[in-house]
Amino acid sequence: MRTVLAEDGALLREGLAALLDRFGFQVVATVADADALIAAVAEHGPGLVVTDIRMPPGFTDEGLRAAVRLRRANPALPVVALSQYVETSYAADLLDSGNGTGVGYLLKDRVGDVREFLAALRRVAAGETVIDPEVVRKLLRRNPLAGLSNREREVLGLISEGCSNAGIAERLVVSEAAVNKHVGNIFAKLGLVAGEDRNRRVLAALTYLRDRIPR
């Protein structure tokens, strides 16, 4: 099974590659960052991608965003996210991609048996969905604003007050370009896609206001 492996830690990357090779996975590329992952998949056309989530340069969710991008380009590409963390910002997008088939999300610290891990990879490659129960619990409890930084929440709060980007920049004493970047990040994290027939500012503001209503 032709496999591309993305992991920024050199020792773990080489150890996983050796393990996969030993048990019948043909590792055609090992890479250390999200851009290299995209390039390796384009070059090798693998039957399986295994990727860490937090990779250079920001060590936030670069690997997860790359996985979502790969699945949008090719919904049939089996992808397993392997991480120490549950990144809720794009996890739902990954698990929803390709009608939710051929995708996995496993937590490194909860992989207790090598053979079970390898079996999970084979199941994903065969089109099944394999998700760690802790990931499911975190997603079910997810606050839609949980993935926003403090500054992004501040910007979204001002959007909900009807402020323009220029007005937000004046209020926060930052450049309008910085505000534009924050707004773009907010739309991306809330899953508000450009080009659709809807007002993303209004929907973002409604999400913010709904979160503030006492339950």
From TrEMBL:
Protein name per UniProt? Response regulator transcription factor
List the InterPro entries hit by this protein, alphabetically.
Answer: CheY-like_superfamily, NreC/VraR/RcsB-like_REC, Sig_transdc_resp-reg_C-effctor, Sig_transdc_resp-reg_receiver, Tscrpt_reg_LuxR_C, WalR-like
Annotated HTH luxR-type domain ranges read 141-211
What Gene3D superfamilies does the annotation carry? Answer: 3.40.50.2300
- Superkingdom classification of source: Bacteria
Q: Where is the Response regulatory domain?
A: 2-123
Positions of modified residues (4-aspartylphosphate): D52
List the keywords (alphabetical): DNA-binding, Phosphoprotein, Transcription, Transcription regulation
